[in-house]
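Wait, can you check?
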Amino acid sequence: MRFGPNHTKKKKAHKLKNEIKVDAELDCVGYYCPMPISMTKEEIDKIEIGQVLKIEADDPAAEEDIKRWAKRTGHELLKFEKEGTILTFFIKKMK
């Protein structure tokens, strides 16, 4: 599902089957470096500390880029999934 021109969808928090509560989603599919990182930073700034941002991307470089970005900026990568070409990150805002 695509979420319109700003590529985000605010939603009521819900728990996934693995109990990660997702507060916001970001669709970076079709974007390539440096856009997934730029878009992730912009969206993480919009949520509150302790909330979780779910990011989907298909840029192969995003796997390492987003993992490194989360570590460098002090946010917590709760989970990473790879299904086909789609990379899914669950990042908890820590500060």
Q: What stands out?
A: The longest helix spans residues 62-73. The domain at 18-92 is CATH 3.30.110.40 (Translation Initiation Factor IF3). The helical segments are 35-44, 62-73. The chain has a mean pLDDT of 87.
